[in-house]
Amino acid sequence: MTGAARRAPVGPARVADLLADPLLAEAGIVAGTSGLEGVVRDVRWYDGDLTDLDRCLLVCPDNEVTPPYRLDALVRRAKEHGAAGVLVVGPRTRSLLSTLRLADRLALPVLWVDHRSPVRLVQDLTALVRAPAQLRTQAVERLLRRLSAKRSGPEILGAASTVLEAPLSLVADDGTVLLGAPAALDDVRLDQAVPQRGARVLVHPVLDPTVNRVAAWVACAVERAAPARLDVLATGLAVTEPFLRSWLAGQRAQSDRDDAFQARLLAEVMAAGDSVGRDVVEGAVSLGWRLSDWHIGIHLYSPSAPAPGGREPLVTAVGAALTEHGFEVVTAVYTGVGWAMWTSADREPAPDWGRQALRTFRVVAAGLPREWALVLGIGRPHRGPAGLAATLIEARDAADLARSHDFRPAVEHADELGVARLLGTWQRSEVTRAFAETALAPLREAPVLLTTLRAYLESGGSVTEAAAALGVHRNTIASRLSVIKERIGADLTDPSQRLAFQVACRALTP
Questions:
Q1: If DSSP codes are grouped into helix, strand and coil, which group holds residue 394?
Q2: Which partner from 3, 30, 82, 436 sits 20 to 30 angstroms from 249, CA to CA?
Q3: Interatomic CA distance for residues 395 and 411, integer angstroms
Q4: Measured on CA atoms in the order 256, 260, 265, 267, is the torsion positive or negative?
Q5: What sections of 177-331 are H helices per DSSP?
Q6: What are the beta bridge partners of residue 299?
């Protein structure tokens, strides 16, 4: 069940609810499982009096059911007086088979727990059943005392988990767990900024007041609990939220300062080249930048790219995907027109690195969400501070070339810039235009085929990359290509024909 509620509704507890509470975490079920859904209206300590037991959980010490036949008699009498269940406190002993069968037949739960303080246990269970407001107040007081001295997110979450005796987690607005234990979020709506209860979780929004939206969620795993317990947990999440909100705001402010520092430092490197000053070198070292290494620049652009300081999820996802393919990104710096990224190595890449990298980057881009409409530009390998500046400029120019394409994702390498200029000259010529009009005439009335042909050619003849660029299955691309080849009568496995038709496609669809 998912619902928007400021506080979990308080209603009658059931035996199973109490059994799921931390108070009875060590309790075991002896018999009578069919009665676990019985309502509990009160908790009574057994002192020989069985009057007024209607829907009460009867708690008795183990000496009252020793020898075992006495438990048999107590179960029978407790059921006759309307008890909701029997909880024996003390070391577990073997029960008579007749007792187990009697409890099962009467549907009277018999529970057993070895608790060091039976009196305290009765008091706590009574409060859980009869005084939920008191429990909530006590929990809030303990929580505030513990949280007031906590500063970091892990400390806040850990303290709240300890007080509430439940696993908590901090979850991003896309469901990614940022801190704490995994959470089952399948049946909650993270697009609705209200507290909710799912089948196995309670969630409370952590708001970002600067932009009036949800920054994250604090979640509490709970599958079964008494209504009063749910009320305490829901209130606990609400009390914890401002502390997490303050911590996230501090993290964001620190991130903003870090981003501004990196952007300023990179601008100085770009301006100074190999003549960087000592303070710049020291700043680079503090950030882990190895300026003297070989660098490969990457320029990332997306219409959905976040503002400075908001790297999640686009930049992180791209960086992680590149790392999986062997490209360890040093950092990402927001430049105002995208993100400047680079990799560094102490050895010069192999001569054929560029072609391999272009194909790998295209695979990476194709595997990321299509709605990001990614554009990636790749620079050539260069060494030293001046080399870092040079490769980032090349990457930006390559990204500008990629942005000129009418399909996404688009990835280009700096080595393609000269070819692109040459192709641009060809595609603007009257001869090319005439060829394009004639050769592609069979596709003009089927725009989807013309688009497919261009995507296939721009992807280097890769069906998989063309399918990713157009957001369709690769079998769809293969089927369309069969139709295209039949209509235009071209052998697209011939490099010269592929080049001619690529130029023709660009001439018709600038």
A1: helix
A2: 3
A3: 10
A4: positive
A5: 227-272, 278-287, 314-324
A6: 340, 377
- Cα–chain center distance at 440: 46
**CA 267-270-275 angle, 5° bins:** 115
- Give the side-chain half-sphere CA count within 13 A for 173: 14
Beta bridge partners of 283: none
Q: Distance between terminal CA atoms of the chain?
A: 52
For residue 119, how many other CB atoms are within 10 A of its CB?
A: 11
Least confident of 88-102, 227-241, 322-336: 322-336
Distance CA 94, CA 334 (A): 69
Residues composing the chain:
510
Pairing status of strand 42-45 against strand 56-61 = parallel
On the question of pLDDT at 43 being above 50, the answer is yes
* Euclidean distance between CA atoms 187 and 194, whole angstroms: 14
Give CA–CA dist 419/49, Å, rounded.
Answer: 96
Angle between helices 384-403 and 416-427 (to 10 degrees): 30
For residue 475, which of 463, 485, 484, 483 has the smallest C-alpha distance?
463
C-beta separation of 223 from 20 below 8 A: yes
Biggest distance spanned by C-alpha atoms of the chain: 107
CB 230 within 8 A of CB 197: yes
| CA 238 centroid distance within chain | 21
Quickly count: other Cβ atoms within 10 Å of residue 154's Cβ: 13
What's the CA gap between 128 and 132, in Å, rounded? Answer: 6
The H or E element that residue 392 is part of is: helix 384-403
For 188, half-sphere exposure in the C-beta direction (CA atoms, 13 angstrom radius) is 28
**Measured between alpha carbons, how far is 457 from 217 in angstroms, rounded to an integer?**
45
Neighbour count for residue 132 (Cβ, 10 Å): 21
> How confident is the model over 217-273, as pLDDT tens digits?
899 988 888 888 888 899 999 999 999 988 887 776 666 667 788 888 888 888 887
Q: How far is CA 63 from CA 60, 91, 507, in A?
A: 8, 10, 95
Instruction: Name the pTM for this structure.
Output: 0.52
d(CA 175, CA 182): 10
| Rg for the chain, CA atoms, rounded | 34
- H/E segment holding residue 329: strand 329-334
Contact status, residue 30 vs residue 110, Cβ threshold 8 Å: yes
